[in-house]
Amino acid sequence: MATATPLTPPPPIVTFDDVRAAHGRIADAIVRTPTLKSKTLSDMIGAEVWLKFENLQFTASYKERGALNRLSLLDAGQRARGVIAASAGNHAQGVAYHGARLGMPVTIVMPLSTPMVKVQQTEGHGARVILNGETFDDAYGHALTVAEAEGLVFVHPFDDPAVIAGQGTVAVEMLADVPEIDTLLIPVGGGGLISGCATVARAHGGIEVFGVQAELYPSMYNRVRGTHLATQGDTLAEGIAVKEPGALTARIVETLVDDMLLVSERDLEESVALLLQIEKTVVEGAGAAGLAALRAFPERFAGRKVGIVLTGGNIDTRLLANVLLRDLARSGRLARLRIKLTDRPGALYNVARIFDQERVNIIEVYHQRVFSTLPAKGLITDIECETRDAAHLDRLMQALTAGGYEASKVELA
């Protein structure tokens, strides 16, 4: 009987040599961001936590690594014609900045809903911006049409071997600085970063790699786990809100990544706030995903030496303020109390005396007389206040109850 000829496995999409070559190609034009141990986070979580501060890149994101590697490989004719990308975020900034630095024309297609500040930032790097479509998919399709019509090179945000190799340089630097790292937690959108980093980790040996996605956008999680969870919603981690992972990156993730983890919006919010409070560093929602997973699954990483990539710091200041205020509310340092009163002179004064006695600062007061289920002589008062901590807030609640008032906390989602 003839024996079957064993199938030769396909060559890897990206190799460690590709990533090392990419690092040599781009190292002089990017920031070699630090990898620093967080003693406070390590003590909190029970693992040795190392942070890679990619939010310190010039464009405040690791994305410029892959963009620059792709641009560096273009020939003279391609550079003269120019490049095009579809993005409303960090990829746009990376392509626009390094394209201008290398002297090539850059076109970025963005959805019509893109905030004007992002449009202006991209134009500030000298790029031509085309607004088209309501969604990223619309913008992506239009970018391909323009690329074909004008002979431009399309720079994909993640599903391109050169881009993947460029993103993998993050792990090259991390493991050069801290070779004892045994676990990587990597945010995943389209999968370019984790594909590059997992390639490096496997070459290094002895490192587990975990991908992290927002619960609202579990696209790569679905692909790896064989699930069919919905991918939609308004997530804080818009940088990894990708409905469909890349074809190339999905193959790499299925081969090289140990597991995919999902984190909630609350996990993301709290991690953004924690990084600002403890590390004094600003990260966007996607940039906090690794820490969010570490906090959500502490038992899984106990005693490990964990490397986390803070992938970017491009967060709207108003959104950041909202995240921080919500964190204060969850910790009990900021509260809104709903108190039932009788509509008579001195009612609010008597309540305010209790706040004064408990040394609680009143920030705002809202009276509601009409739209209420109380009798005509009753009213509801919402009082926003500032306390030292949750225990201080509990003492205030007890004092209000002892004073004969019916009070409740207005809880956050």
From TrEMBL:
Its cofactor is pyridoxal 5'-phosphate. Pfam families: PALP. The keyword Lipid metabolism does not apply. PROSITE patterns: ACT. The keyword Thylakoid does not apply. CDD domains: ACT_ThrD-II-like (cd04886), Thr-dehyd (cd01562). It is an enzyme of class 4 (lyase). Residues 336-413 form the ACT domain. It catalyses: L-serine = pyruvate + NH4(+). Its EC number is 4.3.1.19. One of its GO terms (molecular function) is threonine deaminase activity. Keywords: Lyase, Pyridoxal phosphate. Belongs to the serine/threonine dehydratase family. This is Threonine ammonia-lyase. It comes from Sphingomonas quercus.
